[in-house]
Write a structure and sequence with these properties.
The complex is a heterodimer.
Chain A (H helix, E strand, L loop, with lengths): L8 E10 L2 E11 L4 E5 L6 H8 L7 E6 L2 E2 L4 H7 E4 L11 H11 L4 H14 L15 H13 L5 E5 L7 H14 L4 E5 L3 H7 L2 E6 L2 E6 L1 H9 L2 E8 L5 H8 L4 E5 L7 E8 L6 H10 L4 E8 L3 H10 L2 H11 L14
Chain B lengths: L3 H14 L1 H27 L6 H6 L3 H12 L2 H8 L1 H6 L5 H22 L1 H11 L7 H28 L3 H23 L10 H9 L2 H9 L5 H27 L2
């Protein structure tokens, strides 16, 4: 594949074992240029290992990884020029000043002195570090240290940026700054971000990759994942009336609706009812008309619940492998059609 | 190798802004100064055959045992402990450049510290006004030996630092290796078991590696290429091991 048109990152059948423990087990995915990919997974799922392999820091046990068409295994030097990386826990030297550190890193990343000066000012400005540029890194607060790490990753303007948990330990205000920062890179650079903060990923990322125990469990846009993993929409009602009489009414209104949960009645006789349906269209109006027309029921509230990425994440990491494999076999492909279904040993 | 100047200047800078460097230098000069005064005292009590420079430099092992581990124990161990080796190795920098940069900075500082003891001889020359005290030949030979042997000693320290992520362990390891190299080999030469004819090659090898004999030769003005080869090849070997050790730790991390 020519290097100019190759996807920013292409990983196929990547495996990494550490002393008998398989950290990454046959992961395949691609990231298009300019895309922001969110990496989700519980601790020890293999997120950091995958990222380290992509930066050329760790060698893979088997499989291929390409960054902008350049193979990581054989041309690691070139890959290191293409990737800006912020490792997990963001290690920084304790006894250097912020601008000093960034200057040193810029020189290591082969930036010329003439280019580095203005770029340094720009990065300090973008990351809101101007006030602390002469402070010693070891004495900075966590939020500032995190931003120094991000500044370092974007310093040389690499086409691909990989950040391992960039927003960990930041306060909401700083998270907003980081979010804006990431949004400002959208389109210009390809980003891979791993995070535990799911709403964060949902807001910033174009696509999400959920991995568990070293395998890709699900991938797609947050909306696609909701559909694929949860497979249903649900409606929350607050209703007074006999719950047993509800089923026939629902069946006439919309046969696919199922009663998932019925709560206990409150002081006014209203109970919370949750309905699920495999159908994707908006059924709220139909439902409201049917229930309002029936004098046995009094409806106080109706809403369509939007499952968060958190629900998707929990569902996806809980699903057994057999389910994934069966589903993948039926569909013949995973959601995006870009990667192959995970193989089961 | 294009990153080597960047890393070297960075490392030298970090050593120069670190307070521990100055503490170590002051202690070094203090200890060496006390030795020097002691030597001058003994010279004023009774006349001696050899020049004070020889006696002074014969004590080279004291600072080597303590200064070399202190100077080098931090260099690679600290990078690994803080995890900054990861950010360092994800830039287009090779392990060789990192090891050589750190080695170069530590060696320059070592030379600087030893060079500052030259001030003692200047003071002696200035105030004693006696040419007998300042025999330039042994002085230059001795310092040449210090510079040459420093290559190997610092390399041993860097190697020790590459083996552990704990600075204290690296320091003790460096001390032990230097002790074996300097004192252990000297002790071996006197071991009776090695005097047998069958062990003649071993004996020859041990004699070849006698650091104290090298010093004697240098202060006598004999610059033997075999001895230069001993230190240079030892240095290359130690640095190669350091590079391999850093890379092996990555593979098995």
């Amino acid at each position: 594949m020519p290097e100019s048109t190759a996807p920013a990152i292409a990983v196929s059948h990547l495996v990494k074992t550490y002393a008998g423990v398989t950290a990454v087990n046959d992961i395949s995915f691609t990231v298009a240029r300019g895309e922001i990919l969110g990496f989700l997974g519980p601790n020890g799922a293999g997120k950091s290992t995958t990222m380290r392999i992509l930066t050329g820091y760790l060698p893979a046990t088997s499989g291929h990884a390409h960054v902008c068409g350049v193979p990581v295994a054989t041309r690691g030097d070139e890959v290191k020029r293409l990737v800006g990386y912020m490792p997990e826990n963001n290690p920084l030297p304790e006894d250097m000043r912020v601008s000093e550190y960034l200057y040193y890193r810029g020189r290591l990343k082969e930036m010329t002195r003439r280019k580095l000066g203005p770029r340094l000012d720009e990065v300090l400005e973008v990351c809101d570090l101007k006030r602390v540029r002469h402070r010693i890194i070891g004495k900075l607060s966590k939020g500032y240290r995190q931003r120094v790490g991000i500044a370092e990753a974007i310093l040389a303007e690499p086409p691909v940026i990989i950040m391992d948990e960039p927003t960990i330990g930041l306060d909401p205000h700083q998270i907003l700054i980081v979010r804006d920062l990431i949004a400002s890179l959208r389109g210009r650079m390809t980003l891979i971000i791993s995070s535990h903060i799911l709403p964060e990923i949902e807001v910033t990322c174009d696509r999400v990759l959920i991995i568990n125990s070293g395998r890709v469990v699900a991938q797609g846009t947050p909306a696609e994942l909701r559909r694929e993993i949860l497979g249903h929409s649900s409606y929350e009602l607050e209703l007074a009336g006999d719950p047993d009489a509800l089923a026939p009414v629902l069946a006439t209104a919309e046969p696919s609706l199922q009663i998932a949960q019925v709560g206990a009645p409150d002081a006014h006789g209203f109970r919370a009812v949750r309905l699920t349906t495999p159908r994707d269209e908006e059924l709220g109006e139909t439902l409201m008309r049917a229930l309002a027309a029936d004098s046995r029921f009094r409806l106080r509230a109706l809403s369509r619940s939007h499952p968060t990425l958190e629900d998707v994440f929990l569902a996806a990491t809980r699903r057994s492998w057999d389910v994934v494999d069966k589903k993948a076999k039926e569909e013949g492909r995973m959601q995006n059609g870009e990667s192959e279904p995970p193989k089961h040993p | 190798m294009r990153h080597l100047p960047t890393i070297l200047s960075h490392e030298v800078r970090m050593l120069l802004v670190s307070p521990s460097t100055y503490v170590a230098s002051v202690l070094f000069l203090l200890v060496m100064g006390v030795f020097f005064v002691g030597i001058l005292d003994s010279y004023s009590a009774a006349p001696r055959e050899i020049s004070p420079a020889c006696v002074f430099l014969q004590l080279f092992w004291v600072p080597v045992f303590f200064m070399v581990p202190l100077l080098t124990m931090k260099c690679l161990a600290e990078e690994r402990r803080q995890g900054t080796i990861e950010t360092l190795l994800t830039t287009p920098v090779t392990t060789t450049e990192i090891v050589l940069g750190k080695y170069g900075a530590a060696y320059l500082l070592y030379l600087l510290l030893w060079g500052s003891t030259g001030g003692f001889f200047y003071i002696l020359h200035r105030f004693a006004n006696d040419a007998r005290f300042l025999d330039l030949g042994p002085l230059f030979g001795g310092y040449l030996f210090v510079a040459l042997s420093g290559l190997l000693f610092i390399a041993v320290g860097v190697f020790a630092s590459s083996l552990s992520r704990n600075q204290a362990v690296a320091g003790i390891l460096a001390f032990t290796m230097l002790l074996l190299l300097i004192a252990g080999v000297r002790y071996l030469a006197d071991v009776q078991a090695l005097q047998a004819d069958a062990l003649q090659p071993v004996k020859a090898a041990v004699d070849y590696a006698q650091v104290f004999n090298h010093l004697d030769d240098f202060t006598r003005g004999i610059v033997d290429t075999r001895q230069i080869l001993f230190y240079v090849s030892g240095t290359v070997l130690m640095l190669l091991f350091s590079i391999l050790s850093v890379e092996a730790k990555l593979l098995h991390s």
